[in-house]
Amino acid sequence: MKDVHKWYGSYHALDDINLTIAPREKVVLCGPSGSGKSTLIRCINRLETHQSGRIVVGGIELNDEEDRIDEVRREVGMVFQHFNLFPHLTILQNCILAPLWVRKTPKKQAIDQAMHFLERVRIPEQANKFPGQLSGGQQQRVAIARALCMSPRIMLFDEPTSALDPEMVKEVLDTMVSLAREGMTMVCVTHEMGFARQVADRVIFMDQGRIVEEGKPAEFFDNPQNERSKLFLSQILH
Amino acid sequence: MIATFILSHPKATKRIGGSVAIVLLAAMLYWMGVGPGWLQPFLPGALQSPGASRVAAAIVISLLIALNWKVLGLLPRLYQVGAVWAELFALLLLFFYSFNLSFSFIAKKIGFLITQGVVTTLYISVISIVIATIIALIGAIAKLSKNGVVYGLASFYTSLFRGLPLLMQIYIIYLGLPQVGYVIGAIPAGILALSLCYGAYMTEIFRAGIESIPKGQTEGATALGLRPNHTMFLVILPQAMRVIIPPTGNQFIAMLKDSSLVSVVGVWEIMYLARTMGQKEFRHIEMLITASMIYWLLSIALEIIQARIEERFGRSLKR
Ligand SMILES: Nc1ncnc2c1ncn2[C@@H]1O[C@H](COP(=O)(O)OP(=O)(O)O)[C@@H](O)[C@H]1O
Ligand SMILES: [Mg+2]
Q1: This prediction's pTM
Q2: CA B26 to the chain's CA centroid
Q3: Which atom of ligand 1 is nearest to the CA of A209?
Q4: Residues A112 and A133: beta-carbon distance below 8 Å
Q5: Phi/psi at B261 (5° precision)
Q6: Packing angle between helix B119-143 and helix B270-280, nearest 10 degrees?
Q7: Within 13 Å of residue B270, how many CA atoms lie on the same side as its CB?
Q8: Residue from A15, A38, A41 to probe ligand 1 pocket by mutation (most atoms less than 8 Å from CB)
Q9: pLDDT digits (tens, 9 = 90+) for B289-312
Q10: How far is B205 from chain A (nearest CA, A)?
Q11: Sheet of A210-215: strands edge to edge?
Q12: pLDDT digits (tens, 9 = 90+) for A44-100
């Protein structure tokens, strides 16, 4: 991302964002509510459009060309705070929908692949249930499996654990840690500091649409430089 | 104060309320002018003044209704429903019977009314329903479009065709299109008017249904790389169906009956035949009642189909 700006009406949501993420790198984004974290990662797969600057994902520059956008979206998986599973489809159908219609994978192969990923997130036995029959943690793991079924090269997570009951947070984080260990490129918006310390190569702190501070997790958490980062950390760590 | 009384003495309230209801019912029946004639055999000579006998008749009827209510209260729910239907249907028949209908006339004509009238009505309705559904789908997507031209087209369409009386639309299409050099038959004109009018209503139903699906569903699908049309047909519409089906069923039933308006341009559907066949022998009422019953039966059939479909979509969507 180079010199990226975004406005909602007159509101300056992203203010001069410059950010380069290397392959296999794990980046954790944090910052107060409304600081533009969601907006930033949603620009990466163009759920939001930026108004100036350049965003290049996997060598493809994002602009209004639909083919490019489609190409980027095929390579970028995303996991949302509220899962966004399709309630009218079973877990398995959720997972094979995009491979069938976007990648045109043969059905048999798509199912095999989906079962493989459901096993990796450790819920293959739920394959024929509907999302509403699963717990929040299970649903979020399905959402991760669903994204992985498209074999993305980059995974985006937007507060994947903040809608979960505390006892389910761990199962989702464990899934994400194992994904990180396998070398996936990841950008996570999360306030789970344990997770950030464990897997992040870099922590980025945002405030009011700007990147205020970035650094290695140990440096950032133990010795934040910026006043607002200090304030923020003192608030979330109590 | 009254509220306190009601809340603290539920039983007394119920009794008083029941009595008041019976008195009101009797008063209403008296006011409606219920005749005492049918009481005569039971009370020979007892009530001489016409006023008193009318009061007595009104009271007796309301007591009978109250008794009926009590007795029905003892039955299980399913039987209650059946009994109420049977009683009301009997009353309806009684009402029709009081017209001195010629059943032989009905029997003579009903065959043609069904083979020609019902077939034509169903034919017009089914085709119109299919076209209206397609229009509604396109209209709803257009109304949700960011493109101003597309939105303008769709909103003008729904405004115009919801705003003009259907009868007018039928006339305008049937009489107006030939003016611009396009001669159109009565049946196509009827189908066109019904489709356009109901398409406009259903556009709004479909739009509301689509909008009722949370934005996260579109985002989830988009993030997976699904194109907008895939998202709409694979993700949004199947979920919106649950919201769309009940009011759409209503529209189908309404359209079935509004197809009777097509009779004004001379299409031989139920309404037209009922009117013309009755006219010849001055048996209007016979034919109109027969036609009404046919419409009712067809509506009931649609209601049943609607319930089936709702059940199916409800099941797959349980959350
Ligand atoms: N669709 C939108 N329209 C207008 N303003 C928006 C929209 N989405 C987000 N915003 C605003 O942009 C700012 C950043 O939002 P967001 O990126 O969601 O913050 P975060 O994820 O860091 O909490 C917020 O102040 C929010 O009110
Ligand atoms: Mg957010």
Answers
A1: 0.83
A2: 31
A3: 14
A4: no
A5: -65, -25
A6: 150
A7: 26
A8: A38
A9: 889 999 999 999 999 998 898 888
A10: 20
A11: A76-79, A154-158, A185-189, A26-30, A202-207, A210-215
A12: 999 999 999 999 999 899 988 889 999 999 999 999 999 999 999 999 999 999 999
Of residues A194, A165, A163, A167, the one with CA closest to residue A176: A194
- Taking a C-beta distance cutoff of 8 angstroms, is the pair A61, A19 a contact? no
By residue count, chain B amounts to 319
Convert the pLDDT of each residue in A188-230 to its tens digit. 999 999 999 999 999 999 999 999 999 999 999 888 888 899 9
Are B251 and B202 in contact by the 8 Å Cβ rule? The answer is yes
Comparing CA positions, the residue from A209, A150, A151, A160 lying closest to residue A188 is: A160
> Would the CB of A33 count as within 6 Å of ligand 1?
yes
Q: How distant is the Cα of B223 from the closest Cα of chain A, in angstroms?
A: 6
pLDDT tens column, A31-47? 999 999 999 999 999 99
pLDDT at B309: 87
CA–CA separation, A185 and A23 (whole Å)? 6
Q: Whole-angstrom Cα distance, residue A141 to residue A95? A: 11
* Length of chain A in terms of residues written: 238
CA distance A12 to B178: 58
Nearest-angstrom CA–CA distance, A159 and A137: 13
Strand ranges inside chain B, DSSP E: none
Q: What's the ipTM? A: 0.92
